[in-house]
Amino acid sequence: MAIDMLLGYVLLLVGFVFFCNGMTVLGKTGAKEVGVLNFAVGVLILIAAWQLHGEGLTAATALVSVFALIYFMVAGIFIHGYDAKGLGWYCLFATIVFIWYGYHFYGLEAAIPGMMYYALFCWAWALLVFLAFLVFSLGKAVAPAVAWLFLIEAFLTLLIPGMMLLTGKWGPVTAVSAGG
């Protein structure tokens, strides 16, 4: 139960960042205040990542840490106005990481029902960070698509599953540890 709750906590926090980053890209919020949110969530999920590590889930630690590093970079860009090209290249690398994790979770579905959803989430995040790479590093004019994808994924891949995990409505890891 504790692992699913911790994952729900991480998904909820990341959902806040996705939503606010999407609104910032659409020009609806100021970058500096959302930069502070990115930094705070980066710190909180990095702490959660180490809790996952303590539970023996080093792969989950690495996945959550990928998000934390993105948020630290975004915080610097939003707060200090740094160039986002480096973030774009990091996003290309993160695309590969998310695709791999998607296949990893897909392969776990037979042993842990419900892991297919984590695979789908990872593939959705891979699409998002790939588009971010195109915007930040290659200057492609797809920023509005990135913003809307941030908003959609904030709810479908983060807020809803995070709240389901936090309220015990869904919990693939807990179900396996409880014997079904």
Q: What would you note in describing this structure?
A:
With 180 residues, the chain is mainly α. It has helices at 2-25, 31-54, 58-80, 85-108, 115-136, 143-166, 172-177. The chain contains seven helices and no strands. The radius of gyration is 16 Å and the shape is globular. The mean pLDDT is 93.
Distance between the amino and carboxyl termini: 13 Å
Fraction of residues in helix:
over 70%
Task: Provide the gyration radius in Å.
Answer: 16 Å
Q: Characterize the overall form.
A: globular
The major pleated sheet works out as:
none
- What order do the SSEs take from the amino end to the carboxyl end, as H and E? HHHHHHH
Name the poorly predicted regions: none
Q: How many helices in DSSP terms?
A: 7
Q: Determine the structural class based on helices, strands and strand pairing.
A: mainly alpha
What proportion strand?
under 5%
Average pLDDT over all residues:
93
> How many runs of DSSP E, i.e. beta strands?
0
